[in-house]
Amino acid sequence: MQLTLWTYEGPPHVGAMRIATAMKGLHYVLHAPQGDTYADLLFTMIERRNVRPPVTYTTFQARDLGGDTAELFKTACLEAYERFQPEAMIVGASCTAELIQDDPGGLAQALALPIPVVPLELPSYQKKENWGASETFYRIVRGLCPANTDKASRNPKSCNILGPTALGFRHRDDLNEIRRLLESLGVTVNVIAPYDARPSDIARLGDATFNVILYPEIAENAGRWLEKNCAQSMTTIVPIGIGATRDFIAEVGRLAGIDTTAFLAQETSRLPWYSKSVDSTYLTSKRVFIFGDATHVLAAERMARTEFGFDVVGLGTYSREYARQVREAATRLGVEALITDDYLDVEARIAELQPELILGTQMERHIAKRLGLPCAVISAPVHVQDFPARYSPQMGFEGANVIFDTWVHPLMMGLEEHLIHMFRDDVEFHDGAAPSHLGHASQKAPVGESVSEPMIAASTAQSEPINLEAGWSADAEKELKKIPFFVRGKAKRNTERYASELGITLINVETLYDAKAHFSR
Amino acid sequence: MNLPFRVPDQQVTAKGCVDQPVIRERGQREVFCGLTGIVWLHRKIQNAFFLVVGSRTCAHLIQSAAGVMIFAEPRFATAIIDERDLAGLADIDDELDRVVNRLLERRPDIEMLFLVGSCPSEVIKLDLKRAAQRLSSLHLPRVRVLNYSGSGIETTFTQGEDACLAALVADALPDTKPASLVVVGALSDVVEDQFNRLFASMGIENVGFLPARKAGSMPAIGPDTKYLLAQPFLNDTARALDELGATYIPAPFPLGANGTTAWLKAAADVFGVSDERFASATDAGHKRAEKALIRHRETLDGKSIFFFPDSQLELPLARFLHEELGMNLVEVGTPYLHRQHLRQELERLPAGTVLSEGQDVDRQLDRCRESQPDLIVCGLGLANPLEAEGFSTKWSIELVFTPIQGYDQAGDLAGLFARPLNRQARLGGL
């Protein structure tokens, strides 16, 4: 049993719904009790879809359990076929139906419907949403795409784009950005899947020469199957950030046999200049903590270091399937990777590290709010705000521009940071003053949350306890308050550690500055 | 002095819809399960915590239904059952102890903990009642542990509150002096205060509200206690109160000017409040409510409305919208029709109203499209798709999250239905 306040991923059948909802002409019959239909609102409310997800729920009740839930499933399956006339169907069970073991796959096969029916086995008590999406997409590709190793008839400059789903973090816009990029390179896009693909499109995946894997969490398994059965190579670089986008273009060039040198020379992204211009100097070595799905965390880690000049002080992911890659990145940085889906662990790590910026998910936004830290969202789980009306990709050159704005926005601007440091008693610069461009409303702490002393509260309540014998003298405490709140937690913690190492029992102003000198060596 | 009690509509016959046949459907239900009640219950009882024992789906449901993570520090969580629990490799008692200890360590403010059963915990027959008793014995007097089921195989949406309150009544009421009148059903604090003032001015004393705002201040119930239902979905809670000897006061529900007056009058009659005293206590409120409704009547009068089943508030809402705002009822769907508690609502609905119980969502959508209503009340899964087809919709979930009962909320309640139509008019050019 795991205590969960918030969950980073839904159950695996929600992953299957993300595939089904992204596609056209596919219907999902889900053996599930009343209440599981909540998942529809993820798509209709969070993503603002204007049609219901193509999902039929059998809606069994307690009184059915003694009777024939299998019959209920068969009826629901037949009625869904007759009503929606899909080209293909996927069938499976949600967590409760898994326990009653009705075998939806076998039951659906027995109906002998005149369309392909792909059975799904998604173990709800072991696996989660992204795994469910990946498995579903893999099963659909395997079930509907014939093996085809005839490379001769293929256009060598053609590819499929695999991975974008419904309810994906910026998938809608990433897809457009990358499609445009590929087309301007002279590459033909054969099929995009699962986004807007029909089962009949899946059947012609084999017509392309290679596959662009946009989101490995979702499409890598399908890509590997196609590699083996359709002799298609696949991309390995996710084009998030300037460096990664350049590398991606070079990789696509190699796979398609295109010389990309001239194209790369004409690159028009604003990020490189914005980052090099002097007013970005203040970004240098800001301490950032990164958490999210593996794809976005790995991309953010590279961007943070090489395109913003940040120090990555910690990183982690809830994607256990990609823990190895994240651990490797952490090892290169000399930090310990946090591989967990426990929100409380992430909160504890952030409180301990006291970063100056969190790049995380909507969950880390909560943590940031509690600890009074700036935060930008880089990854799913998604929120209605992650589907902005404007064009807002993460991938490609425009995606890098969007990310520059997104990450810099929550921070104090350089000059403002200095002024706060210098004039502590100015009314505008009081403790907890938000960056001025974020307006006055954000200075008000929500009820019950302490923003006036966020770092102190955080470091005493949250961080690993230092065996603290020393207390703070009134003078030292007053002096500590002169340190801007966004670095105060770190200063307090460092001073306490310094005092405890030296066996000092009362921290005075001298101790504070001795510690400062000690830690700035 | 005349009673401010009005029955204006000649269509209301003595029996209304009481003997009306009901369309009973059984198919896909686009309705939340009882776990969703946690979203408002955890805000209502300020020192209670709700721990769902269930699957990742349960955790995901509550977090999604709660408007996706609006609370930085919620008083609910899920103990997610994993394969080790299912395979019997982990001892369920040990696991629950560990989870509950971690939780209580983190939240020293919690005085009441509900273990909430779910579909998976019911199917694998976890005995949460025994677990709650055992945990109570470990954590009392600091924390009392109760249990109820919010599972989708047994409960729809608001029935979760019913199950929660029934558990409170069965196990957690104090032995102090019983209240004379108890209002049952979670109400917003502002509405509770208004009703308290109204009862006081009628001279009804010692009024309790269930649930109270704090775990430690629940009302005591005894054989002399009379109770009024403030919500129409409290079947099991009413039965538990009956078992303690309390007496049910039949009444319509306090929605709208008429509904509120009739509801208050039912209590006043039981407590022997004179007509004069009742009128002087309620006249002003009733008039205020009527005045607040006038503006919305302009928008809603003569418009047709279709209810998909959701909160079980559908019948009282339909009665209010028809009787006080002149709306035409196309179909009134409800997940479950409790004839005894809704008798006075059924009596007041116009004869011939189409009533449906349960759901087969695709068939109901067919009927709805066929009838082309001016306004559709439905859940969040259906609202945007119907809007995209050109219909105006009202999310039903808002009706359980908003103060809508009583005189001073009657205008707000009407406003919830008028707003989609006003919005449609404003955005007509888009």
DSSP strand tally of chain B: 14
Write down the overall geometry of chain A.
globular
How many independent structural domains of chain A? 4
In DSSP terms (H or I, runs of 4 or more residues), the helix count of chain B works out at 17
Major sheet characteristics of chain B? 6 strands, parallel
Structural class of the helix and strand makeup of chain A?
alpha/beta
In spatial order, strands of the major sheet of chain A run 12-11-10-13-14
Secondary-structure arrangement, i.e. CATH architecture of the largest domain in chain B? 3-Layer(aba) Sandwich
Radius of gyration of chain B using CA atoms only = 22 Å
Question: What CATH architecture of the largest domain in chain A would you give?
Answer: 3-Layer(aba) Sandwich
The DSSP helix count of chain A reads 23
Instruction: Determine and state the CATH class of the largest domain in chain B.
Output: Alpha Beta
User: Quaternary arrangement of the chains shown?
Assistant: heterodimer
CATH class of the largest domain in chain A: Alpha Beta
Q: How many strand segments of chain A?
A: 16
Mean pLDDT of chain B: 92
Outline of the structure:
The complex is a heterodimer of chains A (521) and B (430). By secondary structure, chain A is an alpha/beta fold. Helix content of chain A is 46%, strand content 12%.
Describe this protein with a few key phrases.
heterodimer; A: alpha/beta; Rossmann fold; 4 domains; 5-stranded parallel β-sheet; 4-stranded parallel β-sheet; 16 strands; globular; B: 430 residues; alpha/beta; 3 domains; 6-stranded parallel β-sheet; 17 helices; 44% helix; disordered N terminus
